[in-house]
Design goal:
about 230 residues, mainly alpha, three-stranded mixed beta sheet, 3 strands, about 75% helix, hydrolase
Length: about 230
């Protein structure tokens, strides 16, 4: 019983810890102005133009930390604070999202693979738990196995996301320095923002793998009993 309580505590605490790191780093460095005085929108536009991505637009979106790149519409969407702000955090986030646009332009293999996984990963996220629990409850192991397969696709999506996000951050650091949005003494702060954001993906992947492993072991145990 104690092991199960520890397990579920880890499932809840790890993502919360990662989220708190992101919020703390973002809150701190969103108050630190970057030395170039460029807004997040200007940073994004400067990097896009330097890489010949004139067809990618930069738009403002509501919310906090709602920044993302839309590969279908070819749009970088930055939250209002980052779009208009001139902070180190805003510049880092903007550069990171442009990193995804550059990946898209260059047909970065992990990004293409992740896009291909989206339909089945979405289906797996929605159906896997239902199929697994019904399968275990009714003793229908084939149904439970199907749920585990669906969950495996969702977990694979989480794992593939890791190199995509780390690569986007690596590109962001190179580009943000190249366009002069930050200076040498700001590199450390920029990396802290990007690393904290990466932690959320690592935590999500870790939790997803743990959950999959738990159900695989449960399935194996029930299968041996039969």
């Amino acid at each position: 019983m104690g092991a199960y309580l520890l397990y579920f505590a880890l499932l809840m605490l790890i993502p919360l810890w990662a989220q708190s790191r992101v919020k703390s780093a973002y809150k701190k460095y969103s108050k630190v102005p970057n030395s170039s005085g460029m807004s997040g929108a200007e940073v994004a536009r400067r990097i896009l133009d330097q890489n010949g991505l004139y067809n990618v637009s930069v738009e403002e979106v509501r919310g906090r930390l709602t920044d993302h790149y839309d590969p279908r519409s070819k749009v970088i969407r930055l939250s209002s604070e980052n779009y208009h702000g001139h902070s180190v955090a805003g510049a880092a986030v903007a550069a990171h999202e442009v990193g995804h646009a550059i990946q898209d332009q260059q047909s970065y293999a992990p990004l293409r693979f992740r896009h291909a996984l989206v339909p089945i990963a979405s289906l797996g996220s929605n159906l896997s738990y239902i199929l697994i629990f019904i399968g275990f409850l009714l003793g229908a192991l084939n149904l439970a196995l199907l749920g585990i397969i669906f969950m495996s696709a969702a977990v694979l999506f989480q794992l593939v996301t890791l190199p995509v996000e780390f690569n986007a951050s690596s590109r962001a650091m190179d580009q943000i320095i190249s366009v002069g949005a930050i200076r040498n003494d700001e590199e450390r702060e920029t990396k802290k923002v990007l690393n904290a954001a990466a932690l959320t993906y690592v935590a999500a992947a870790f939790v997803a793998v743990l959950e999959l492993l738990r159900f695989v072991l449960m399935f194996a145990g029930l299968n041996q009993e039969d």
